[in-house]
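CPBP family intramembrane metalloprotease: structure tokens wanted.
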Amino acid sequence: MNYLENENIDNKVISPLKYFFDFFTLLCFVIGGMLLIGPIIGIIMAGIYASFAGVDSQSLIEGILSGDLSNTPKTILMLIQAGAALGAFVVAPWIFIRLFEKKRLRDYWRTEINLPLALLVSGVIVIVFMIVDSVIIEWNQNITFPGFLEGFETWAKNKENELADMTELLTTFDSIGEFILGFLVIAVLAAIGEEIVFRGLMQNQLAGFFKNPHVGIFLAAFIFSAIHLQFYGFFPRFLLGLLFGYLYLWSGTLWVPVVAHLVNNGFTLIMVYLHQEELTEANIAEAESAPWYAVVIALIVLIALLKYFRERFYLTKTDI
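Answer:
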């Protein structure tokens, strides 16, 4: 369900102020979920795991509350990450939807299109997009700032290094079990939760407020990228948000951006794991762009696929 369909429910036109109010209310819910609900869920899950794994629960919780995670087992860290994602992007938006949208989560997953075909095409689109996006990734990571922005550059680099260290820790898998847990948290849970918030809710609210779906897509993609607090990955993530936004607009169902998001994160994790197991020499974590000829070919294929997707699932629907 996108905002255009939302406008036609019971032939009622929703005021832009309602969209504006809902947007900021949702932000408060997400922040509350991130700061309050998420940590509680994470600590509960970590405590349950610790009791079965023979980990000292008291010292574990003390370390979590103090912010010292240096001696925390990786599985515990992954469960804390899962708790944060559940709190901010699943539980909080679910409460918001029930209280303010007066809907059920299932309403956002309705589909009137050939869903298997849409999912297949969107998955291929994401893989091809990753080749094109590799150029933006390399460019973004090598941006330098003028002297008067030295303070921001220092902060951005420190934050990037801090988050990169945590990402490397969470994606260094010592067993297939750790990989499966990581896949569920980083790929599956992130795809579902983030798409509910940024596409299902924020994009619709912003599009409704500005009466323009394209403005909604761009602003939601901007927030989606900015909230990760990684400037040196901002632009490729912003483009990814645009891609998910248009796939959602054209398909009219959250299934498509969720699966597209899952393919992006899941493919990356699988390639990381295969490289760690020395099953492939390709290291997807390296910020090197694909060869120029591969990028050109991928760009042509990407444009053709997006054109097909729009004509097949959006224009045919709006012409009815």
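Residues 95 and 185 are 21 Å apart (CA to CA). The chain has one domain: 16-313.

Cheers.
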